[in-house]
């Protein structure tokens, strides 16, 4: 180990030793002093303050600050030796039982009632009691008298605020704290990258003080200042990246696609069987104005399930066709691409029949390009696209492949944008001679700060009205483990709807045997829970049991495309009563006669996913019913999440809940780029004002110095916090 000053680039093995450095690298991906210094505590505990043991989830890897309440030794039943049970509590009324196997009299003497400690392990459950089996622990001193613990590893915890780090089973929080202490003793902070004018105007502490106080806070006030400064750095880096991208994009050339009087769009509006909502009209005007400019539109269209986004997108596509260009819509699944194709052909009628008898004078063609097209059909479709006769092209990832060429691609529409990676969206844009206009759509409502942070370089349009004719959806949680009779009632309720002439969905998290696919939940949780229920296993059980006699179809992503299309057509035509499916029905599937959905293992799905799924019912004149079946126990976070989904159909409220329960780094693109996120402290829900202020400062700075040439340290800091891959993700939305 070295006594030389440490910088952010100093390898950890020079500071904490080879063995510890190897553990930090392999378990936490921490390699340098900078990696460790920016590995911030997850929270801070105080002796005597509880961490609410009652809220812990089974299977969760946790560190709790707790006090030993009592110990008990009893013989093991299955083998020789004794079992030590140590009951610890945190002041909230919740308790954990820590179990240690084997004859360990020394541990019983050490874990005396009244002593405080940090206990780390995986939460399990046995006979209704929360347990930690053989947890790692470190004691903080004698309970009540404040005696400092003798263990060197506990020195860090002598103060009032105890940092608790994101840890691994092999590297508990107190080991990380010890390593941080060693690094801080010789650490030389980098030059402060933030312009002095910004620091002064926003009352921000220096970077050196912030990095020390975040790990070893001298008071709550100093900790607040440190966190605020480091949050600012994260927000400022993202906003500078987005503002720079927007600044550069404004200079890109694009072909203007102005509206044309008396063209396809006017003819389409005249034949629409219903009136557009005021929201659809307003958003349509925004998009039309964007398309008419010589710079590429880059707009996000968000709207609740069923708010009419597809019609808005189709009108934009027709404006581009009127202007001599082509428009492509990228859909995440073949089921959705085929449904878009059928729906647009129905809406356009003779306007989509160019070259056919009875076609309108200025008709175009609408082509579907998917991976399952036969060779002859594919050749014909690609010729129509390449020669420009197909003004509207719909497809899946197949649109991205080599050999799909456009005559004049003017608009790219990405449906359910979160289902596509950066490279896929970019590949489609690259098929145009000049940057095309881009419209990305999502039915997952986006909280304002997420929009500002993740989509800050897009213009955003929101459809909040639902078209006339949409019915309300009632949602209820069915606690299958606690009240099995409720599940029986759910199946009877489904049969009642079918008896009225309606149809139903049953959704499962998994397909069945075979390789896992993107539409599936994980096979088995780390905590050993049973595998999620599977479509191929559930469907025959339902056919033989509670849904005997009903016409049941199966739909999932592993079926051949023609079979998927056939099943979906049969369901849409009313030839099937029940569709047992995976989340392949999550987006775009539109069967107005379907009134009930039962989601099995609902706790295996995300909040936004559940909201999307239930949007498949209540699409006609009859009310919709969504039943969320789960074995999650009352009081668990999984159950609270389901209760929240059942309590509201407000997508924006649910989006905020979803955000609260996910790592902020995931929202900010870490999972998209496959890299470890450096955005750790910023909360997109709680730091709204800070994000807004950072954006204002970023706009001012980029207007004065677009490439940050006069601020090289800041440019380097931004590059470290938002690497190039993540910047691309942020740019493309």
TrEMBL record:
GO terms for molecular function: DNA helicase activity; hydrolase activity. SUPFAM superfamilies: Nucleic acid-binding proteins, P-loop containing nucleoside triphosphate hydrolases. Residues 290-463 form the Helicase ATP-binding domain. InterPro entries: DEAD/DEAH_box_helicase_dom (IPR011545), Helicase_ATP-bd (IPR014001), Helicase_C-like (IPR001650), NA-bd_OB-fold (IPR012340), P-loop_NTPase (IPR027417), RecG/Mfd (IPR047112), RecG_dom3_C (IPR045562), RecG_wedge (IPR033454). Residues 486-660 form the Helicase C-terminal domain. Keywords: ATP-binding, DNA damage, DNA repair, DNA-binding, Helicase, Hydrolase, Nucleotide-binding. Pfam families: DEAD (PF00270), Helicase_C (PF00271), RecG_dom3_C (PF19833), RecG_wedge (PF17191). Transmembrane segments: none annotated. Residues 509-531 are annotated as: Disordered. The keyword Transmembrane does not apply. The keyword DNA damage applies. SMART domains: DEXDc (SM00487), HELICc (SM00490). This is Probable DNA 3'-5' helicase RecG. It comes from Micromonospora halotolerans.
């Amino acid at each position: 180990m070295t006594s030389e000053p440490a910088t952010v680039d100093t390898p950890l093995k020079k500071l904490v030793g080879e063995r510890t450095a190897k553990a930090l690298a392999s378990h936490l991906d921490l390699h340098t002093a900078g990696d460790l210094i920016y590995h911030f505590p997850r929270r801070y505990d105080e002796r005597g303050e509880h961490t609410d043991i009652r809220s812990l989830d089974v299977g969760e890897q946790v560190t709790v600050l707790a006090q030993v309440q009592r110990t008990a030794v009893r013989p093991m039943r299955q083998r020789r030796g004794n079992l030590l049970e140590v009951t610890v509590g945190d002041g909230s009324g919740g308790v954990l039982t820590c179990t240690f196997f084997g004859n360990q009299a020394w541990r019983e003497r050490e874990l005396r009632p009244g002593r405080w400690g940090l206990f780390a392990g995986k939460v399990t459950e046995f006979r209704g009691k929360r347990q930690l089996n053989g947890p790692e622990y470190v004691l903080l001193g004698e309970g009540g008298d404040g005696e400092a613990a003798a263990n060197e590893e506990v020195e860090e915890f002598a103060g009032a605020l105890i940092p608790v780090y994101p840890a691994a089973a092999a590297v508990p929080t107190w080991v990380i704290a010890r390593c941080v202490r060693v690094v801080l003793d010789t650490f030389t902070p980098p030059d402060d990258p933030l312009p002095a004018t910004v620091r002064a105007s926003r009352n921000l502490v220096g970077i050196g003080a912030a990095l020390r106080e975040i790990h070893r806070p001298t008071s709550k006030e100093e900790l607040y200042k440190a966190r605020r400064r480091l949050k600012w750095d994260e927000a400022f880096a993202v906003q500078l990246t987005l503002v720079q991208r927007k600044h550069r994009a404004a200079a890109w050339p694009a072909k203007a696609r102005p509206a044309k009087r008396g063209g396809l769009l006017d003819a389409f509006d005249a034949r629409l069987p219903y009136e557009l909502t005021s929201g659809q009209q307003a958003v349509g005007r925004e998009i039309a104005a964007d398309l008419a400019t010589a710079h590429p539109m880059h707009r996000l269209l968000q709207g609740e399930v069923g708010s009419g986004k597809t019609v808005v997108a189709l009108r934009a596509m027709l404006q581009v066709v009127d202007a001599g260009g082509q428009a492509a819509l990228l859909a995440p699944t073949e089921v959705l691409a085929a449904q878009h194709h059928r729906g647009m052909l129905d809406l356009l009628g003779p306007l989509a029949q160019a070259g056919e008898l009875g076609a309108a004078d200025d008709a175009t063609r609408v082509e579907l390009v998917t991976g399952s097209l036969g060779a002859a059909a594919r050749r014909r479709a690609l010729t129509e696209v390449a020669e420009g006769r197909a003004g509207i092209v719909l497809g899946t990832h197949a649109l991205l492949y080599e050999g799909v060429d456009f005559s004049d691609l003017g608009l790219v529409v990405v449906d359910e944008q979160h289902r596509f990676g950066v490279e896929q969206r970019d590949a489609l844009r690259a098929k145009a001679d000049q940057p095309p206009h881009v419209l990305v759509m999502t039915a997952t409502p986006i909280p304002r700060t997420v929009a500002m942070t993740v989509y800050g370089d897009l213009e955003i349009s929101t459809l909040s009205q639902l078209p006339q004719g949409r019915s309300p959806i009632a949602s209820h949680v069915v606690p299958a483990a606690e009240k099995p009779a409720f599940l029986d009632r759910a199946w009877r309720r489904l049969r009642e709807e079918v008896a009225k002439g309606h149809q139903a969905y049953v959704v499962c998290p998994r397909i069945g045997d075979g390789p896992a696919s993107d539409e599936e939940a994980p096979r088995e949780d780390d905590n050993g829970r049973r595998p999620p229920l599977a479509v191929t296993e559930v469907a025959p059980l339902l056919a033989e049991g509670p849904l005997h006699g009903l016409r049941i179809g199966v739909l999932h992503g592993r079926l051949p495309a023609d079979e998927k299309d056939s099943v979906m057509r049969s369901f849409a035509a009313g030839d099937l009563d029940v569709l047992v499916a995976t989340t392949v029905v999550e987006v775009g599937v539109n069967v107005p006669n379907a009134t009930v959905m039962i989601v099995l293992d609902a706790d295996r799905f995300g909040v936004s996913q559940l909201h999307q799924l239930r949007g498949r019912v209540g699409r006609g004149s009859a009310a919709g019913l969504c039943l969320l079946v789960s074995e999650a126990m009352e009081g668990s976070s999984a159950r609270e999440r389901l209760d929240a989904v059942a309590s509201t159909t407000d997508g924006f409220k649910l989006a905020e809940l979803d955000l609260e329960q996910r790592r902020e780094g995931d929202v900010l693109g870490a999972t998209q780029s496959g890299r470890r996120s450096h955005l750790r402290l910023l909360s997109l829900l709680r730091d709204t004002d800070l994000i807004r202020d950072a954006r204002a400062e970023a706009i001012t700075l980029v207007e004065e110095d677009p490439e940050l040439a006069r601020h090289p340290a800041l440019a380097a800091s931004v590059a470290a916090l938002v690497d190039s891959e993540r910047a691309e993700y942020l740019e493309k939305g």
